Amino acid sequence: MLSEFKKYLSESLELPDQEIQPILSSAIPRKLRRNELLLQAGDVCRHKVFIVSGILRTYSISANGNEHIVQFSSEKEWTLDIESYDLETPATVNIAAVEPTDAILWKKNDFNALLASLPLLKKYSKQLISRKIYENRQRLLTAISATPEEKYDDFIRNNPHLIARLPLHMIAAYLGISLKTLTRIRHAQLYR
Amino acid sequence: MLSEFKKYLSESLELPDQEIQPILSSAIPRKLRRNELLLQAGDVCRHKVFIVSGILRTYSISANGNEHIVQFSSEKEWTLDIESYDLETPATVNIAAVEPTDAILWKKNDFNALLASLPLLKKYSKQLISRKIYENRQRLLTAISATPEEKYDDFIRNNPHLIARLPLHMIAAYLGISLKTLTRIRHAQLYR
DNA sequence: GCAAAGTATGGTCAAATGACCACGTTTTTC
DNA sequence: GAAAAACGTGGTCATTTGACCATACTTTGC
Question: Which residue spans within B80-143 are E strands per DSSP?
Fold first, then answer.
């Protein structure tokens, strides 16, 4: 599991070998089964998470028991409940594996030490956060302005690697539409 | 206009006087009339903006001509199109005054210099950005999970200082519901 | 490999929503 | 202060959406 992560560090971050070693030494590998929780709402999010393989979903359960998905994260992505992690407050969301997932965790202290000692890592982290901010604004705009069909088409366009791996009801829970509406859209698109 | 901003700096940021002066000296005051554009989609966002009084709205126009509001910003808040500002790419949103507004602008270079020389300002900026991230996630969650009525109630709860100053159609454009639905909700709430 | 769980689709029906239009009132602008 | 623009509400009607349920099929987990 760590060797793939090493590859990511050297290729995507272009980190030299001697900077990779300290990152590995505080890494905590973690295997998750389908539907296993990585973070439970109410707990404090104490780790940064990198996904080696698999998919995680970040979701919350509304008063009437419905699940709403804030985010999917898959291979070579990082995830956490940022608010809970920063402020050390109870998480309001759950993070669970959609499919069997290999992840790597770092404790907050360890990761902060890495950020302080590895400028390249820090720079890269900032970039990732910025990109997330831009993406989230776009997602919000779509959520308030697009029709269900546009939302679905958008999702396919932005997440081609996920469509075949996610059950439809999760896509619906991510888009904020009902499963029924989603299957109707798919049905309609068959004959066009 | 600048004196109110000075007060903000010393009270909210607790900046000592000698750190306030450099911020003021690169500040560009700007008065906006109702509906006047501060940033036009297509242009690059080249300024950080602080609002002394008034309200700005950040919005985009969809293909069919509808306006969708990404954000309202009012007194003592900062605003910009962060993606356009960071990457110096054409903005995809417009920023315009909802009511007559007094704002203060800084050029990116000037503001970056301030951030580099004033650690307190930098720290405060980071905090603001973090808070925005948390808020935006909550807003997204509401957008995909709440009923129109819940969205409206949420809006009132989170923006009590704005409700009386915004026309309903803008609130609708912010919530992603039609004006008709919004007036229906208000009507229903009268008799409860 | 097999039982159990999960998944995709479709039917039906009630309710919610939006598009369009009209009208009386309020606010803005000069 | 008067004309014009903007605003809030309501009516109607077609359409979309969701809730609930059933069924056939596929995937999962041991």
Answer: 94-97, 101-107
